[in-house]
Amino acid sequence: MDEVILTCDTHNKMLTEALFDYYKKEEMFDATVCFEDGKIRAHKLILSALSPKLAHVFKIDEETRHVYFTSISKSSMEYLIEYIYRGKVSVPSEALASVIEAAEYFQIKGFMSQNNGIENKVLKGVENLPVMEVEK
User: Chain centroid to CA 52: how far?
Assistant: First the structure.
């Protein structure tokens, strides 16, 4: 029996845009990530896809809807969540260190250092601060 392979060159882009659209419209959320300075609602599956740490938390009890972190700021996590949903984020230079620290805490894929086994690129002019990509 012959098979036909159906493909779409823009599938990844369309999927990424659709997922971020759900996030922006605040639709179908099933998780709330809480911090000392606020909370962010999101989708467990999306957060878990790029954060082994969050995936572990959500797997411990699949009914978990709220997770609490006291050492991370809401603003740092907002940048990470945009990165998780879109694959890129623009971070002001004054926030970069705290965002990278939060990315390492949550083990965000693409932000991890090489000694953790994930390839990265380094910002020009900023020594030893690993990030996935910088767009200006």
Answer: 11
**Average of pLDDT values for 49-60?**
92
pLDDT in tens, 5-24: 999 999 999 999 999 999 99
Residues in the chain: 136
Give the Cα separation of 14 and 122 in Å (integer).
Answer: 28
Residue 80: name the closest of 117, 126, 33, 113 by CA.
33
Q: What is the pTM of this model?
A: 0.76
Residue 99: inside a domain, yes or no?
A: yes
Is the residue at 6 inside a domain?
no
- Give a yes or no: residue 123 inside a domain: yes
Backbone CA torsion sign across 30, 34, 39, 40: negative
Does residue 98 surpass a pLDDT of 50?
yes
Number of domains in the chain: 1
Sign of the dihedral through C-alpha 107, 34, 77, 95: negative
**Residue 57 structural domain:** 11-131
CATH code: domain of residue 17? 3.30.710.10
